[in-house]
Design goal:
Blueprint: H1 3-54, H2 58-72, H3 76-80, H4 87-100, H5 108-120, H6 125-135
Organism: Paenibacillus zeisoli
Protein name: DUF4363 family protein
């Protein structure tokens, strides 16, 4: 191999490596944007659930809580604290129990206010535990 061929080969490899790195960068950016969008949607669903509970529209709150539970598996919060974001599934169960037993949710305003707070920081375990405790009261 002469020197000119070697330089061309090295340049080609360098161009391929830079191209591959740019491709990876754009894919990571897309994924990051999707996760950010899901996180925002998750927070919005928490707020919607809070509003529906406050309005005493329990069946719609249940449907919303199901969406909340589904979204929770794809948020960055779920990945950050594995096993921590189990409260959406418990909220679904608790609301379903209220519907099945025809029980009215007590402390609607407090639960709604706490859900509003939780939407600001979905990983706040103290607030989520308090919400679950209030939902489980008969």
């Amino acid at each position: 191999m002469n020197r000119k061929t070697l330089i061309i080969l090295v340049c080609l490899l360098l161009i391929i490596a830079v191209g591959f790195n740019l491709y990876q960068y754009t894919e990571i950016n897309k994924l990051s944007n999707q996760i950010s969008k899901i996180d925002t949607e998750f927070k919005t669903e928490i707020l919607r659930t809070a509003s529906l509970i406050r309005q005493n529209d329990i069946k719609l709150a249940f449907e919303n809580a199901v969406r909340l539970d589904t979204l929770s598996k794809f948020t960055s919060y779920y990945k950050d604290k594995t096993g921590f974001l189990n409260y959406p599934a418990i909220i679904v169960t608790d609301i379903r129990n209220h519907i099945t037993l025809s029980n009215e949710i007590k402390n609607k305003k407090e639960i709604s206010d706490l859900l509003n707070e939780l939407s600001k920081n979905p990983t706040d375990q103290v607030i989520s535990d308090r919400i679950l405790m209030l939902l489980q009261q008969d």
